[in-house]
Amino acid sequence: QTITVGGNWTNNATFDAGTGTVVFNGTSAQAITTGGDSFNNVILDNSNGAINVLANGLEIDGTLTLNQSATVTATDQNVTVAGAIDSQASETNSLTIDAGSNGNVVLQGAVGGINPLDSMEIDWADQITVGDIWANQINLQSDGDMSLNGTTYSAINNDLSLYSNDRILLTAGATTTTISTSSAANLYIGAVDGVQDDVAGET
Fold it and tell me: Which of 1, 138, 154, 201 could form a disulfide with 20 if both were Cys (CB 3.0 to 4.6 A apart)?
């Protein structure tokens, strides 16, 4: 089942996402109040691009598809996506997430693994946990720990920036972690206080 929402989403009861998909296709900024319930699959097709999470955070148990570029603002709330994040086929869209200084961002699935994003940005969060990322540009900024759980972080055509006021942790175990940019771009890694002992030898 697919639910299409052109306005705001306010859950004052219980929402059972099941195996369905929710499409946000407004033409102006859309506000989301989840009531603490998660979504299954989500498609962001808002021509304005602004998705504002007002309360209870945002949890997506399935996939997130970008039919348009989107900025998700969830100030001091958690944002979690369990599945893959991709642009719609044949398009290259961008995703920006801002969780404020007290919200955590967890992206468990691959980002841009099927259709690379134009840019993947986490403007600010307390702690960041991400899997593999393929995008033309990558910019991640955290106040606390940044955990790179994937094996590939590839900025295809532009800069790759990883900034943390605490630690950047490579947590792929014995697997090599590859962080790369194009030959004409820059790699920035800043404010790194330490790396976990169990990842010694990763690159």
Answer: 1
Question: For residue range 44-101, what is the model confidence (pLDDT) as tens digits?
Answer: 999 999 999 999 999 999 999 999 999 999 999 999 999 999 998 878 899 999 999 9
Half-sphere exposure of 84 (CA within 13 A, CB side): 11
Tell me the one-letter amino acid at 23: V
Report residue 147 as tokens.
């955990």
Contacts from 69-74 at CB under 8 Å and sequence distance 24+? 69/93, 69/94, 69/95, 69/118, 70/44, 70/46, 70/94, 70/95, 70/96, 71/95, 71/96, 71/97, 71/98, 72/96, 72/97, 72/98, 73/98, 74/98, 74/99, 74/100, 74/103
Neighbouring CB atoms inside 10 A of 183's CB total 5
- The secondary structure of 49-80 as a DSSP string is -EEEEEES-EEESS-EEESS-EEEE-TTS-EE
